[in-house]
Write a structure and sequence with these properties.
With about 120 residues, the chain is mainly beta. Helices cover about 0% and strands about 50% of the residues. The chain has no helices and eleven strands. Strands 2, 4, 5, 6, 9, 10 and 11 form a seven-stranded mixed β-sheet that branches. The chain has a four-stranded antiparallel β-sheet with strand order 1-3-8-7, with no helix packed on it.
Length: about 120
């Protein structure tokens, strides 16, 4: 069964760092663009980072640019989001999303909670 599972969330102080991981199973990530979304309480889900299926194209939302880094390891079938300089407003549930580069279904994880608090 195809799925993606996020891990690495937790509570961190402002200015701190966390690394989120997204482990895919049931399909090969090399055929999928991998993205990270987040949804803060009371707000819409937003895309914050995306990396193309072979890693050649990367996108960051302005809100995380120069603080977050998206990476992928197709050999491990995983994607990552390294977060540094965390701010209070980064608190949210972070979701991994796999979208097919060519054809097929897309997959969402259930999310991992990141709380930035003093």
């Amino acid at each position: 069964q195809e799925r993606v599972v996020e891990s690495g969330g937790g509570k961190v102080q402002p200015g701190g760092s966390l690394k989120l991981s997204c482990a895919a199973s049931g399909f090969l990530t090399r055929g999928y663009h991998m993205s990270w979304y987040r949804q803060a309480e009371g707000k819409q889900r937003e895309m914050i980072a995306s990396i193309s299926h072979l890693g050649g194209n990367i996108f960051y939302a302005d809100s995380v640019k120069n603080r977050f880094t998206i990476e992928r390891d197709n050999d491990k079938n995983e994607a990552y989001l390294q977060m540094t300089g965390l701010k209070l407003e980064d608190s949210a549930v972070y979701y991994c999303h796999a979208s097919p580069a060519f054809q097929g279904l897309d997959y969402w994880g259930k999310g991992t909670l990141v709380t930035v608090s003093p």
